[in-house]
Recover the amino acids of this structure.
């Protein structure tokens, strides 16, 4: 599914679902996918072990925990520098935070598979099939279901990790979810994780000290409805400005996109279009 089709398709599917209309284009499995289960025993035991251990070894500096709403729909919108960003955000939050992780982390066999499955469950991860087209739509649907149940999720508006440490322009998917579900957005600024665990590293280093800053929650409802492209863009820019204020990163002024593989893809990146 092409990106411009994806941008049209998801709002249409949400509208049909709210109206109670079946979506003939979706496979039955996607229509009946169960809501992710609430965190349970493994999550709380894991936090009881991992959080004190991480504090002892890595001495992270956590700021703004009091800004996090203890109940209700919340999206943690963060900059993204390293794999461990998805660990530090939920580990040091006073409430459970869900994020999507590759389903392969949960499907392994033997002792390694058991450890991987329980580790990711312990930090609030939910499995998802990665990919474009239908897989991307299903992932967004899954995030919306989690929010709809009054829980919190963590997302990266940049879309992928920043390899040069700069803060890239935000994509509008986070804003769409926030506006659609009337969720508060807690901006997060993470500093130092790209040095603590660079791309390719197997384990995090003890230095430098990682800093996690939770900002004040943002209510975006005054900007308009989720089906308004202008509202999504304004909401995204407000979220990114808050993240920038917390992280202090240099602004890239462009989207964090993979190099175009052919002239058509290069043209699509240059032409104005909404990035989700």
């Amino acid at each position: 599914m092409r990106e411009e089709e994806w941008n049209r398709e998801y709002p249409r599917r949400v509208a049909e679902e709210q109206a109670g209309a079946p979506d003939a284009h979706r496979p039955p499995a996607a229509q009946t996918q169960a809501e992710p289960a609430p965190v349970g025993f493994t999550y709380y035991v894991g936090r009881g072990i991992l959080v004190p251990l991480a504090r002892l070894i890595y001495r992270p500096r956590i700021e703004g925990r009091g800004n996090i709403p203890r109940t209700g729909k919340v999206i943690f919108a963060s900059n993204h520098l390293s794999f461990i960003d998805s660990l530090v955000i939920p580990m040091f939050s006073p409430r459970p935070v869900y994020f999507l992780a590759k389903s392969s982390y949960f499907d392994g066999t033997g002792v390694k598979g058991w450890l991987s499955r329980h580790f990711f469950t312990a930090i609030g991860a939910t499995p998802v099939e990665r990919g474009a087209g239908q897989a991307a739509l299903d992932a967004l649907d899954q995030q919306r279901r989690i929010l709809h149940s009054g829980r919190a999720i963590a997302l990266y508006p940049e879309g992928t990790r920043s390899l040069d440490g700069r803060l890239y322009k935000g994509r509008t998917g986070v804003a769409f979810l926030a506006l659609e579900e009337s969720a508060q957005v807690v901006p997060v600024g993470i500093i130092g994780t790209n040095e603590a665990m660079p791309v390719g590293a197997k384990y995090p280093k003890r230095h430098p000290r990682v800093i996690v800053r939770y900002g004040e929650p943002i209510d975006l409802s005054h900007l308009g409805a989720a089906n308004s492209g202008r509202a999504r863009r304004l909401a995204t820019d407000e979220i990114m400005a808050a993240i920038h204020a917390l992280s202090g990163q240099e602004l890239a002024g462009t989207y964090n996109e993979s190099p175009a593989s052919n002239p058509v893809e290069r043209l699509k990146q240059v032409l104005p279009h909404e990035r989700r």
User: Anything to note?
Assistant: The first helix runs from residue 3 to 19. The CA atoms of residues 64 and 214 lie 5 Å apart. Strands lie at 61-63, 74-78, 99-102, 125-128, 152-155, 184-191, 211-214. Residues 61-100+126-257 form one domain.
